[in-house]
Amino acid sequence: MIADEIEKLKSEIWQEFENIDSLSELNNFRIKYIGKKGVITSYLKKLKDLTLEEKKRLGKELNQLKADIETRLKQKEKEILFKEEDKEVGLDLTLPGRRVFLGAIHPLSQIIDELCAIFSRLGFEIVTGPEIETEYYNFTALNIPDWHPARDMQATFYLKNGAILRTHTSPMQIRTMLERVPPLRIIAPGKVYRCDADVRHSPMFHQIEGLMVDREVSFSDLKGILTYFAKETFGEKTKVRFRPSYFPFTEPSVEMDIGCVICNSKGCRVCSYTGWLEILGAGMVHPEVFKAVNYDTEIWQGFAFGLGIERIAMIKYGIDDIRLFFENHLYFLESFK
Ligand code: PHE
Prior knowledge:
Elements: H1 2-18, H2 23-34, H3 39-46, H4 52-89, H5 107-121, E1 125-126, E2 132-133, H6 135-138, E3 164-165, H7 171-179, E4 184-193, E5 204-214, H8 219-234, E6 240-247, E7 250-259, E8 276-285, H9 287-292, E9 301-308, H10 309-317, H11 324-327, H12 330-334
Parallel strand pairs: 1-4
Antiparallel strand pairs: 2-3, 4-5, 5-9, 6-7, 7-8, 8-9
Helix pairs in contact: 1-4, 2-4, 5-10
């Protein structure tokens, strides 16, 4: 009976399979059993004289057998290839294992995390928003009307649809104030874009925006919080100074410097021999900005600040070329483990 023959064939096949030891044996086996003119094909042909029911049953069985052989051959082929590779290189179990390389958190991410942690301790909440902005949020609502020369202070990337890439994180002040009611304390880290590129400027870079609004927020709060931030970031002994400055969305406006941490304020190339490094811009929220978000200027006061992450990282780690952050050379990234 053909059914018995098939049973017998199966046991022969698997026995022979066990003895396969090389790729050539494996190939012969494949041709012999599942090749076009192989044993299984010939059995399939033999089925034609059987009853329909038997044809179905045995046909199915043979096809299944064929499929099983195929999968097990593939598996076997891998095993053989591995073995031959070992033979080729001479398997030496005394060799040390392959080293596993650990990744490092990108220095900019590290600084962002660090700064977020510092401001979280002061009760600031982290918010994020879009990098593609409208001129309204990026400029107009921040008291920078169309004609204002400050629009040229930050060379803007315009998109075809009239949108822009945000030139600073300050639009997050507007977005947050429109969404929430005061009091609020937020910081907004993220990417910003300016058409500018050299060793100190990258067309894409990172900022953190800060905003605090409450009934009684004064310039001393601004100074206190930013001084705390400077000392936490650069060390307890860090000196700070505030210089008058100008931003359309703050009044009065300041820039904060820290004593040069590279030369200890003695004067060096990095601080242009001034002993000071500028690290952020800040000021009291301009009444026009509060008006744009419908906050009553008789009730609410606030301060805002913005700082560049790359700049902080460059100062902190003594890096003199901003492009290093984005070229992703392993020797650079690995030094931040
Ligand atoms: N947005 C300003 C800049 O990018 C920084 C800033 C933020 C200044 C908030 C004052 C207040 O230069």
